[in-house]
From TrEMBL:
It comes from Micromonospora yangpuensis. Residues 5-73 form the HTH gntR-type domain. Keywords: DNA-binding, Transcription, Transcription regulation. GO terms for molecular function: DNA binding; DNA-binding transcription factor activity. Gene3D superfamilies: Winged helix-like DNA-binding domain superfamily/Winged helix DNA-binding domain. It comes from the Bacteria. Pfam families: GntR. This is Regulatory protein, gntR family.
């Protein structure tokens, strides 16, 4: 039986693919956690876990009161 990744990892991988495809270019603001939770049909905590993982890997940067942004141009291979 194949192993299914946790939903937060699937969201993280999808966001990485969207960044790589230029949907979210460097410096761009991501939709709010609430909107992402609606898009992925999950809780805001699951989305937050995916975003936190990407922030830890310097793929995203959180700015208090402003939102979450894609880090400026660099190789973003995890």
């Amino acid at each position: 039986m194949p192993y299914a990744q946790p939903l937060w990892r699937q969201i993280r991988d999808d966001l990485r693919a969207k960044i790589k495809a230029g949907i979210y270019p460097p410096g761009s603001k991501l939709p709010s956690t609430r909107l992402l939770a609606e898009e992925y049909e999950t809780s805001h905590m699951t989305v937050r876990r995916a975003l936190d993982s990407m922030i830890e890997h310097d793929e995203l940067i959180g700015r208090m009161g402003l939102g979450v942004f894609v880090t400026e141009a660099r190789d973003q291979d995890p």
